[in-house]
Design brief:
Blueprint: H1 2-32, H2 39-54, H3 62-84, H4 88-95, H5 98-116, E1 118-125, E2 133-138, H6 149-160, E3 166-169, H7 180-190, E4 199-201, H8 217-226, E5 229-231, E6 235-239, E7 242-246, H9 262-266, E8 274-278, H10 285-290, E9 295-298, H11 309-317, E10 323-327, E11 330-334, E12 351-358
Parallel strand pairs: 1-12, 2-3, 3-4, 4-5, 7-8, 8-9, 9-11
Antiparallel strand pairs: 2-12, 6-7, 10-11
Length: 359
């Protein structure tokens, strides 16, 4: 269903682009030249725009994102044109496309910087169940999409200074770009993060068996466990008075693998314990709150990688795209992750790793 939704959205975007850019180009030709638009020119321009538009149905590709930004920015300037079209300078900058090109260029320059400028985001929470617990969350590395293992070593050296108690790896550490060697090296790097109560990993949607059958969940699990990292897949791990509930990714159900209901897991947990839910996708938030969980950590959304996709998705779907949400004594946090997916740009939120201090 999600794939169909993305495809339909891509087709709608393409159709809007064809109609609008056709009008824009014809108007620009009339504004700056004496060329008469005959049938051949009309057919050529319309065909060209159609080919370009329908090559952008993959909403995650770099070409598509550039196309969407050009379309949206030009439409915004179109609105200003109604008020400023009497000014010759603005008319020239707008009709020549100069304003759009400069704006889109600046946006993508910022997006590239933002993707690669990884920051620490901190939250301070309160609980009567526990005192001074530090939880470090790392999510959505998508190793070798925009983050290399050498860069990860630099981030880990900074993370080590945080002296976390628990390290939560909330999925999509690897994906299609990750080799077996990447998995071995990254698991070793992550296994050296300073901690007092363990490192815990849950699978993301990109960590199902790859089409070539080489990178499997079993191989990932084995490499993590070699490095002392605990892998949880609809399982509970209790240390001291902390219960960590690691969920299987909801997206795996499309492969015929059903995950347990939240109630099946949380009803097994001592409610006197501090209950930490790790779920790659920000699912079952209200249900987890009602079942007595204290904190849920998720990723997956990349914080709405391309603005304004995040706020729009949150508005229509109710998904917690980025940041915290409080329900009584329960808090859910969705991190944008250290990296993103597809194009190496992020304009919707910072690239980050997260430190939660529970007092």
């Amino acid at each position: 269903m999600q794939i169909i939704t993305f495809l339909v959205a891509g087709l709608i975007n393409g159709l809007i682009g064809v109609f609008y850019f056709r009008k824009f180009i014809f108007r620009t030709i009339k504004e700056f030249t004496r060329i008469k638009i005959n049938k051949k020119i009309n057919i050529f321009i319309t065909t060209f725009l159609t080919i370009v538009a329908f090559s952008t149905t993959n909403l995650f590709s770099l070409v598509t994102n550039i196309y969407i930004h050009i379309l949206v920015i030009t439409l915004l300037y179109e609105g200003l044109n109604h008020f400023l079209k009497k000014h010759q300078v603005y008319r020239f900058l707008f009709y020549s496309g100069t304003l759009t090109i400069l704006t889109v260029g600046l946006i993508f320059a910022y997006g590239y910087y933002n993707m690669n400028n990884v920051v620490l985001t901190e939250y301070i929470l309160e609980s009567e169940k526990i005192d001074n617990l530090k939880i470090l969350q790392i999510t959505d590395l998508h190793i070798n999409n925009s983050v290399t293992s050498n860069e990860l070593k630099g981030y880990v050296s900074k993370m080590n200074a945080l002296n976390a108690d628990i390290v939560a790896l909330t999925g999509d550490i690897f994906d299609h770009h990750s080799s077996l060697e990447d998995v071995r090296e990254v698991c070793q790097i992550l296994g050296h993060i300073n901690n007092n109560k363990g490192i815990y990993y849950i699978y993301g949607n990109h960590e199902r068996t790859r089409s070539n059958g080489i990178l499997t969940e079993e191989y990932i699990k084995a490499e993590f466990e070699k490095n002392g990292i605990i892998v949880l897949k609809d399982e509970i791990y209790t240390i001291d008075n902390i219960s960590i509930v690691g969920r299987m990714d909801a997206g795996w159900s499309r492969s015929g693998i059903e995950r347990k209901k939240a109630s099946e897991l949380l009803n097994e947990v001592d409610k006197n314990n501090y209950i930490l839910v790790l779920d790659h996708q920000p699912k079952d938030i209200e249900e987890n709150a009602s079942l007595g969980a204290d904190l849920q950590l998720s990723g997956h959304t990349h914080g709405g990688q391309y603005f304004p996709s995040g706020p729009i998705e949150e508005l229509f779907s109710g998904t917690l795209i980025y940041g915290p949400k409080e329900i009584d004594n329960f808090t859910a946090i969705t991190s944008s992750g250290i990296s993103g997916w597809g194009a190496p740009f992020k304009t919707g939120s910072p690239s980050e790793y997260v430190l939660i201090t529970v007092k």
